[in-house]
Amino acid sequence: MKTFDPHVSPNERSVDNGRRAFFVKLGAGATALASAAVTAAPRGAEDPAEKLARLEEERALRKLHETFERLLDSGAYDEVVDLFADDAEVVFNNGVFASRSGIARLYRERFREGKTGRRIEPAPGFADELERQQERVEISADRMSAGAVFPYSIQVGAPIETETSLAGMARLHGEGVQTWWEGGVYRVSYRKDADGRWKIARLEYDTLARADYRPGRTYAEAIAVAPISTTYPHDPHGPDALVRRA
User: Fold this and answer.
1) Which pLDDT does position 45 carry in this prediction?
2) Cβ contacts of residue 99 below 8 Å, gap of 6+?
3) How is 126-162 classified by DSSP, letter by letter?
4) What would the pLDDT profile of 205-214 be if each residue is shown by its tens digit?
5) How far apart are CA 141 and CA 144, in angstroms?
6) Residues with Cβ within 8 Å of residue 116, at least 6 apart in sequence
7) What CA–CA distance (Å, rounded) separates 19 from 126?
8) What count of other Cβ atoms lies within 10 Å of the Cβ of residue 35?
9) CATH node for 19-242
10) Nearest to 245 by CA among 23, 32, 6, 21
């Protein structure tokens, strides 16, 4: 029986002296948080009705992911939270945001304040790496759980924390947010709720690249972004835990 775990990052990522210095190796620590692997249905001879049912489930999951991306892109963060199971978790930049309260803190507060989630084209010079990432969706034999991998290319931001007068003026005008481009893959686990609706059970942002880039530019520079290091409540927008490293 084939086993599929959407959270296992590739064992090795190429790193050279140029723009690939930004590659992130999450290592075994991030994957240790992953839920049990999703077991795919046996291949080979498959009843036509069963095959059709599985195709319908796959379409439903792809539609759910499209909804997730559309809501993020439009800044509808409240509605994003509703797509998750009550006990779900999201792994973002070394932080684990657990249950509805933690996920609400991530999207309604951290993402909203940083203007994060809007889809943008890959930064110049970085597109080839994302194009090599393949989408896939696999559904368990009982069609009650599933796993998927989807590439992403988004804007991420964080409020400028310096206390200079210019930063203060920017904040007064609704600005004062440092933004950058980020690309990678979503590693997602799904399960059905009591009413038979698909919900996101776990989502991990597996970041492959970050760059100083704004749409319309013809160049981009790789950047490093410090991982989240402070948990809630010390950081009001922080995660419930940090990713455990081996």
Assistant:
1) 67
2) 86, 87, 88, 89, 240
3) THHHHHTPPPEEEEBTTSSEEEEEEEEEEEEEEE---
4) 999 999 999 8
5) 8
6) 110, 154, 155, 156, 157
7) 8
8) 16
9) 3.10.450.50
10) 32
